Amino acid sequence: MDAGLTHSVLMDVDTGIDDALALVYLLSRPEVRLEAITCTAGNVGARQVALNNLALLELCGKSGIEVAVGAEVPLEIPLVTTEETHGPQGIGYAELPPPVQQISPRHAVDVWVDTVRARPGQITGLITGPLTNFALALRREPGLPALLKGLVIMGGCFNYQGNTTPTAEWNVSVDPHAAQEVFTAYSGLPEDRLPVVCALETTERIELRPEHLQRLAEAAGAREPELVLPGQPEGQRSVSDNPLVACLSDAIRFYLEFHRLYDQGYIAHMHDAFAAAAAIGRTPFRTRTATVHVETASPRLIGTTVADFRGIWNEPPNARIVTWNEPEQCFDELISSVGALARMLAPRSAVES
Predict the structure, then answer these.
(1) What is the pLDDT of residues 169-188, one digit of tens each?
(2) CA-to-CA distance for 228 and 245, rounded, in angstroms?
(3) Which residues, other chains included, contact 257 with Cβ-Cβ below 8 Å and sequence gap of 6+?
(4) Which residues have a Cβ under 8 Å from the Cβ of 95 and sit 6 or more positions away?
(5) How far apart are alpha carbons 68 and 84 in whole angstroms?
(6) What single-letter DSSP state applies at residue 325?
(7) Which residues of 258-289 are buried (b: 16+ CB within 10 A; e: fewer)?
(8) pTM greater than 0.85 (yes/no)
(9) What is the pLDDT of residues 144-158, one digit of tens each?
(10) Are 173 and 303 spatial neighbours (Cβ–Cβ below 8 Å)?
């Protein structure tokens, strides 16, 4: 690995507003090399996910990173997307120009297998969407769990209300069969090889509020405050002269309005941004090992994740579930790091003022 780089990350996403913040955050970290981005259907279709990622890379001045499309449908059930949550293109009200860089001709499964085989023990996988691509990659190369440096998954909920059904979290519910295959593949491995699972009970603690966007604009050196407030008309757009601040603000406003519509307050859960910070060791968390089962048959319970923490099933653990995190520290990290990147992208006139 090059001097100064301490983390090589392969990111699998269904971008997605919170995926977008997670991606921008990783791009802002100088010690992180993003090996590739693989795309799966989830929040929106897989090809729209890829276009979102390419446009965000170019906005952040980071073009040249491979973006590959993988599974366009789940393994066994019909695809359900969630434009009502993330907007018609998946990034809320944000509008980005069509990317110049093209989608990779390689399939996401090839990217996963070839990248990890070429650099065993060096790649950390970060999956913030459905687990379809990784399940397919495991079918091709069952040794991936041993070849990866580590794996961080955003998904599931345990003894906690779901956000898709009363018992199921979104990413797992989109493709529960893939999730079950992934957890099965990790059964019986040493504890330090088990995936870190960032489930709803801790990711919903990462509540972004209007003051966080104000702080982001300040960290970016914006000349005017960034006010995204509950009393403003729905769909109002940012007037920031900083392109990254404006993009994130317009995306997140949509997410704030969605959460308010469902009586959760004018907040936005940044599930994937926490998972990204956890994957590179930039935010503290604690885990507890468990054996995870994903329900795939019951019509009402499909996508439910059940964790046996006490060994009642007499089966080896297959996951390390995050049980504690520090939201304030996580937001300090996200804002300072993304703000520094945004400051670098600011127009010269804004910097000079």
Answers:
(1) 999 999 999 999 999 999 99
(2) 12
(3) 234, 266
(4) 250
(5) 25
(6) E
(7) bbeeeeeeebbbbbbbbbbbbbbebbebebee
(8) yes
(9) 999 999 999 999 999
(10) yes
